[in-house]
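Appendix B. Raw example, untouched.
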Amino acid sequence: MVRTAFPTLCLIVAVGGLVGCKLVKNTDDPAGEGGMVSSAPDGDMTRMVEEIWTPRVLPYLQENATDFATLGPAIEADLDAAGEAHGYRPTSEGTPWNFATLVTGTVIAAETDTRAATADVDVDGDGTADAVLQLGPVIRGTALRDVLAFVDFSSFTDQIEFAQLSRALNTKAYETALESLSREGLVGRKVEALGAFTVRGKGGAVLVTPVEIALDEQ
């Protein structure tokens, strides 16, 4: 659901809106309420995502999001330490860290003449991009799937089904948060976005998949 105006950058809006600037993750129930998600009997990942999006996916991201102003420097200083404190990754060796985050900053560049549209966000005010928000409709990566501790490959039939789950999550994020977002006049506007990203190494702006987004009024 797109929010087009907000009085301050750290805010709480109605149910389904953005959350405040949470700085630590909640690890009391890493699998999320209800235990692990597993394959649907008919293999319909779109239907599964519809069923878990509001009761499980959004609350999980809201509760575990770390403000990027804190998270970015922590990753630069020590990725594994930041991951242990704020991120999630499956137990298999060598898998990358995944983070839920709240990005608050100013749009300094936007590429909107492509189906994989993006907006570059300066979080710390130094004039360079710290995070790149995916605007779609093409959403790249598997961050939304891989950040969810209650989703594990071993609970699904095969790799194809697991990949379908990721695509269904990306599609749902686009439909609910991004599809109605205006692409005009983004540069210079304040933005707040709740989402997820994956880090495979330090350096450069991270690619964030938003599930909720708000822009200030022009």
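End of appendix B.
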